[in-house]
Design goal:
Length: 351
Amino acid sequence: MTNKDLLTNRIQKMKDLDWGNLPFGYIKTNYNVRCYYRDGKWGEIEVCSDEYIRMHMAAACLHYGQEGFEGLKAYRCPDGKIRLFRPDANAERLQQTAHGICMAPVPTDLFIEMCEKVVRLNQEWIPTYESGATLYLRPLLIGTSAQVGVSPSKDYMFLIFVTPVGPYFKGGFQSNPYAITRDFDRSAPLGTGKYKVGGNYAASLLAHTIAHDKGYASEFYLDAKEKKYIDECGAANFFGIKNNTYITPKSTSILPSITNRSLMQIAEDLGLKVERRPIAEEELETFEEAGACGTAAVISPISYIDDLDTGKRYNFGAEPGPISRKLYETLRGIQYGTIEDKHGWTRVVIE
Ligand SMILES: Cc1ncc(COP(=O)(O)O)c(C=O)c1O
């Protein structure tokens, strides 16, 4: 097969996928990239077409949960360029995660080089702009030393795979209901909630399944110590809007969301006040708008929050509010290169 045939084939493959209806699932792409930490240093970047990892059955990540990950997206923009959004912030958060559970940190340059490489290698898997779908990057850092004692691994593997994911909102920007749970904590104030480690997600699965089975988009956690303040909603940060102010929880148990950090800046740019402070559950009643925010949806507006124990319902309206919509459109516009990126958040990977 000639190079031209290969390219035609690839473009054909792109056209054959119904990007707009893809779920948030896994689809095999061409390559992943890997790097190994041995003898106290990172090696060369390796390109791999194998989806599987060969590892020792006594690997530290399998037994003692020494693993951290990240999630970010590559966007095919209307100007034809491919952009990443704040990969340096994901690199920094993975370094914090590594520090939090005693893993070897991945240097920012290495992290970004691998992000760019894996996107370039899988170009035909980057969905069309019109579909609203994106290419999701999943960086993963695991401790691989064979050991049975509880201690930090000596060796690590860092890999990034990609998979195309469909748009979060298949029928347009919509609001969803959430439910407060007191029966589960996903993390503790001095625990690992502020790191992106698998254990936090394992701890949330049962609560999430129960909320989902009851018809809610996701579960809402209160602070584990007093069960008084709002922490997070599933795998997303929370924000509320009132009196032209963007208010989001300050808590040591929640993941520092890059989307939330960006929305706080945009809110400020738009002339809103921004407050990061504890939010007691009762304050929910006073918010004009509320939303969950994260890479997956940017903003998932909240229609209402049910407190399953007290029967109290906090209503924010069936339709997304004007400020949530403005924040959503602004951040998406920056990600897709249609709104000026005045904070230098995006990184063009393919011109
Ligand atoms: C627990 C949790 N909170 C918040 C977020 C949102 O973070 P980000 O905006 O960086 O995607 C995520 C998703 O990564 C998450 O898993």
